[in-house]
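Annex B. Sample input.
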Amino acid sequence: MNGSQENRYLQPGEHTAGIRNLMLFYNGHYESNAGIWKKEDFVPYISYVDESGQPQEWFFDGALFLAKWSIAFRGYEGYEVGDGRSNNLEDWQWYLDKTFGEAGDLAELNKAVEEVSAQLNDPGYKMKVVLMIPYPDPSQNEFGELAGSGPLSFDYRRVAPDEAHRNKQMVLEWYIRQLLERWKAADLACLELSALYWMNEAVHQSVPLEEELIGWTRDLIHDAGLKFFWIPYFSAENYGKWKELGFDAAVLQPNHFFTDTGADRIRVTADMAAKAGMGLEIEVDYRAFGEDGAFRAKYLNYLNGGIEYGYAGDVFRGYYQDVKLLASAAYNEDPVKRAIYDMTHRFVKGTYVRTDI
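Annex B, continued. Sample output.
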């Protein structure tokens, strides 16, 4: 990929709210309680820690909070896509309560930034935060009732498409207002709310007024002084139209780590992202700890691809790591596992060099 192509990736700046490296923090419900985040859990993400666990410098500069499921485990992909039992008002309220609780995930992140700021002698540092907007799934016929609304359906096959659209607007407006009010009340002095994130990873032409809904949501978000982000999956419907749809910044998923694809998937995704003016997502999960090294090699395809295809430079990137893989690597006594954390740090900081397993 030549220099002119490299420059077509989405670069950090105003459209990304100044964020360069956006870490995905999944804070929904898991039976293992992995989605509960405490101050100490955040430390190896907001700062690079040495092998004794001491912060050395700032690390990821953006935090995206998002969730698959609430405690009710509704929906095939929970807050993203339903299966006839989609997420409802109860799930949306649960997520707001968990995220903004007195000892919730944002409060714990705020404590972590405050503590690390003191350790790094950098008072006044603020972490940029992005919060998800659950998807008003079109298969949901019984979302619940807001004050004076009556029962709300998003299912255009059961109610008129215009009515389903208005119901979605009503719920999205309620959710965004709740989110902004709770943010203001929480007084998170070490955090800066920068953007909201559209949870559904594709925009389907088959859903009536879907594009209009996204544009309308963008206007609400811009009125609040925030940016609007999206991370579609590989070859998702309408991924290349992200600007037309109204998103300020978008990152494309290679989905190489989770599929039976070779290293060439990274090249193909990089080309797609560059042509669409998007950033790229780096993906890993706990299988990278496997003894045979197969998934560690897959992860290296992402990092090495950054060097080969140009997205290791000044490019907006998202980072998926299951729930807490990189923290597990940071504190792991096995040097091979710890190396996953160190390599990721070098990639973020622009000092990574090609590595082979």
